[in-house]
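To: structure desk
From: M.T.
Subject: fold request, one chain
Message: Could you run this one when you get a chance? Sequence is below, nothing fancy, just the single chain.
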Amino acid sequence: MQVRVRATPIAQQQIGQLRGRPQRAFESWLQRIKTSGCKALTYRMTGEHVERLCVFHFYGELRVIVAFAAPQDARVLLVGPHDDADPGIDVYTQLFELLGIPRPTERVGKPDCCGPDKRPPVWGEDVEMLTDQFHKLAKRR
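Reply: Done. C-alpha cells follow.
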C-alpha cells in the first residue's frame, strides 16, 4: 500500500524548521506512513471534533498530527512539541485554537489509530474543509 502524504501550509513551515535528529526522525516516520498508513501512528485522539485525528511521537516531545481523507491519503496538519508548560508552542494548544474549540480538561484514552478493520479514521471530503480552515486561520496568526 502506498499512502500519499501532504502537509498543510502551517505544517510545511513547521517541518521546514526541523534540524538534525528531529528532522531525520520526521523523515524516517514519513517513509513509514507512506508504506504502513495508520500503523505508522501512535494513537487516535478522542473527543468531539478530534476523534478522527491521529498522532505520532517522532522525537522526544515532538508530535505530528494527521488526518486521513482516505486510507491512502494522509494530511499532516501540525508538527511541533507537546509542552503543557508553554501553551504558545504546544502543538495540542495550536490544534484546538485552529479548530476553534476548547481544549479538554480531562485526560482521555488513546486508542490505536487503525480501527478494528485495520483502516484509519477517515474524514473523506471534510479533510479539504479542515485543511482550508487551517490554512486560513494560520494566515491570520
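Reply (cont.): The first helix runs from residue 9 to 16. Let me know if you need anything else for the meeting.
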